[in-house]
Specification:
With 65 residues, the chain is α+β, with helices and mostly antiparallel strands. It has 2 helices and 2 strands.
Length: 65
């Protein structure tokens, strides 16, 4: 059982490393007073959803919360 847990942890670490090495698809910068916020945007390139589909999902989930 410990072997399975160790394998899962190893896979998780490898996934995090792969994500960290990838360059962002876009960067948004917004300044609020003296603070600057920088957001890196990553897209799933194998997804079939359009940006509009994703935006509508985000808006509808905001309404239900």
């Amino acid at each position: 059982m410990n072997d399975r847990k160790t394998e899962a942890q190893t896979e998780e670490i490898q996934t995090e490393e792969q994500t960290a090495a990838r360059k962002p698809d876009g960067v948004l910068t917004k300044k609020f007073g003296a603070k600057t916020f920088i957001a890196e945007i990553f897209f799933n390139h194998s997804s079939r959803d359009t940006f509009q589909d994703k935006l509508l999902k985000a808006i509808s989930s905001e309404k239900t919360e």
